[in-house]
Amino acid sequence: MVKGSGRGEFNIQGSCINDELMLKVSFYFQVHQPFRLRNYLFFDIGNKHNYYNGALNRAVLRRVISNSYMPANRMFHKLIRKYGDKVRVNYVLSGTLLDQLEKHSPEMIDSFQRLLKTGQVELLGTTHSHSLSFLKEKEVFSMELQRYHTRVKDLFDVEPRVFSNTCLTYTDDMAKTLTEHGYLGVLTEGAESILKGMSSNQIYRSVSSPSLKLLLRHYHLSDDISLRFSNRSWNQWPLLAETYLGWLRKLDKKDKILNLWMDYGALGEHQKKGTGIFDFMEQLFSSVAMDQKISLSKASDLLTLRKRLHPMSVEGTVSCSGDRTISPWLENDMQKEAFDTLYRLYPRVAQVSDPEIHRDWSYLQGSDHFYYMSTKYEGEHSQFSPYGSPYDAFINYMNVLSDFALRTDAGFERTVPEDFRVA
């Protein structure tokens, strides 16, 4: 394929392939690891301030890097070297992951840096701590965005322009803040509750902030890879790249884009190497790269499509998990109490100068802590939880939070003169 002189491209026989008529497929991979807490006892409160299970966090990180992250990165390096700009991919790297990689696996940081330098990889913005702060404190949410922006600018010399919140959580209330931080688009879940009969394979604009474009995940086709690929009871098992490509070709002709989002751990960790997941992905990307009616896109490429955009309202909060709401994190009384208790501490945290307080404040916001407390999806969540039960997760988190509150109060007393204290 060589460039033509017009808007399209020309294949070697000279026939024009109009880029506007091609289905643009964007793959997004969320890469995240939380700071899991150690077994923190009631008697530790006020006496011990080391909250994190360092051994477990290192062990999980090393295993996932070995099984998933590094072989997947090598695969995409190989595909980009072979096919050039016909292979494009998007990542969402959480700040808590980056903190752990910098400390324990700098070679993984180097690998992502090399991918980004190819120009065929885009990094999306997100919250630094993989939090749900937008639900409680807009000021904290804004600070999380700025912290992440600064971090990836320093590490990768990029400034994300498309946003992907924790597990694709989104509501109209976020739009103005995202626009103020320079975002042009946001990726969220193509849930039926917001589509109301429309297609997830179109670009929409936010009702509350019209300059912000909405990209919607096609969760059926995403989950066919990330969740169902190795399920032998699935009527499509074993899934072949040719079969999946056929599904893409059969999409409605009016559909111009397809957003496929999944956890990066689906490649090699959740779907083990022995299932054939890497061979499948390499064959799929190779086939799409050579297809004349389908192209791979970065998120920002989609925002440049010239088309009249329909407005879309997302009044409730959608997500990619469970029933497409925030119920996996904030359904039961334990989750709500822990979440409310955490953010009640913010006014004092904001007035404390101790960097360790601010580090722990960031890590304790991680949505995983509340996810582990879920009873509605207990069986589904137990495979990721370090706890024996949701109740153990709640007690442990609240013990840590009690000690953190004591430290915050002490830091507040040391930092802020009485005459200048804000209630």
What is the strand content? 5-15%
Sheet with most strands: 5 strands, parallel
Write down the CATH class of the largest domain: Alpha Beta
Oligomer: single chain
Q: How many structural domains can be distinguished in the coordinates?
A: 2
How does the overall form come out from the CA principal axes?
globular
Instruction: Give me the Rg, rounded.
Output: 22 Å
Task: State the end-to-end CA separation.
Answer: 66 Å
CATH architecture of the largest domain: Alpha-Beta Barrel
Model description:
With 423 residues, the protein is α/β, with parallel strands linked by helices. The protein folds into two domains: 21-312, 7-stranded beta/alpha barrel (Alpha-Beta Barrel), CATH 3.20.110; 329-415. Helices cover 43% and strands 13% of the residues. It contains 17 helices and 15 strands. The chain has helices at 54-83, 95-104, 106-117, 138-156, 175-180, 192-195, 219-226, 241-249, 277-290, 299-302, 327-330, 333-344, 346-349, 355-364, 368-371, 378-382, 390-415, and strands at residues 2-3, 9-10, 16-17, 23-31, 89-93, 121-123, 162-164, 185-189, 204-206, 213-217, 257-263, 267-268, 271-272, 294-296, 310-312. Strands 4, 5, 6, 11 and 14 form a five-stranded parallel β-sheet that branches. Strands 7-8-10-9-15 form a five-stranded mixed β-sheet. Strands 1-2-3 form a three-stranded antiparallel β-sheet, with no helix packed on it. A hairpin with a 6-residue loop joins strand 9 and strand 10. Helix 2 (95-104) crosses helix 3 (106-117) and helix 14 (355-364) runs antiparallel to helix 17 (390-415).
